[in-house]
Design a protein that fits this description.
With 194 residues, this protein is α+β, with helices and mostly antiparallel strands. The protein is 37% helix and 27% strand.
């Protein structure tokens, strides 16, 4: 298991962990550009808005954290490996028990259909990973996460490394120095996620 104090210190300094599937070792990542979702600029897509109006999914927080992280750890389609090792799973389950890691879950007819997990540290939320089993389930969970973060006054939603899906959700690539400024501001604000 990753040392909790070391892990939280790393996040506060702009690092996050990933394991290398080829050797199983844990690495601390600090990319030159960071994917950040501006909370005030986020808007759901028309499809997500429609699903929200129809209450297609029942969204809940922290009812099946381990189910969410294990679904996120499963290799994606057309991939045989994952960056979420068993060491990471065990550590984040412990962080969840400590009230630091949280899951947002989309349920459909009693089944976990999609969701995401991340860490809430003061005024920053560090999004770690998302998964879906039904179309748009993770996007609906993401929308509810953004609503929660806005309502609570969070200043930073860190999405770590840009990809096409995050770009569709409104993430921007910010240079490392700008990310550290945003992080410092967010860490100066004390907020409870729940």
């Amino acid at each position: 298991m990753i040392d909790i104090g070391e892990l939280l210190r790393a996040y506060r300094e702009g690092f996050f962990p990933m394991s290398d599937p080829s050797d199983g070792k844990l690495y601390w990542c600090q990319p030159h550009n960071r994917a950040v979702v501006p909370l005030d600029a986020y808007r759901p897509s028309r499809d997500v808005s429609r699903l929200l109006r129809r209450n297609e999914f029942r969204v809940q927080f922290n009812t099946d954290f381990e189910g969410v992280i294990r679904a996120c750890a499963a290799p994606r389609r057309n991939e045989s490996e994952t960056w979420i090792s068993e060491e990471i799973v065990e550590t984040y389950v412990k962080l969840h028990r400590l009230g630091i890691a949280h899951s947002v879950e989309s349920w459909h007819e009693g089944e976990l259909a999609g969701g995401l997990y991340g860490l809430a540290v003061r005024g920053a939320f560090f999004g770690e990973s998302m998964f879906y089993r039904r179309s748009y389930a993770s996007q609906v969970a993401f929308d509810r996460l953004v609503s929660r973060l806005r309502a609570k006054g969070y200043l930073l939603l860190d999405a770590q490394i840009m990809n096409p899906h995050l770009r569709k959700l409104g993430a921007l690539d910010v240079p490392h120095e700008e990310y550290l400024r945003q992080l410092d501001r967010a860490l100066g604000k004390k907020i409870s996620f729940l």
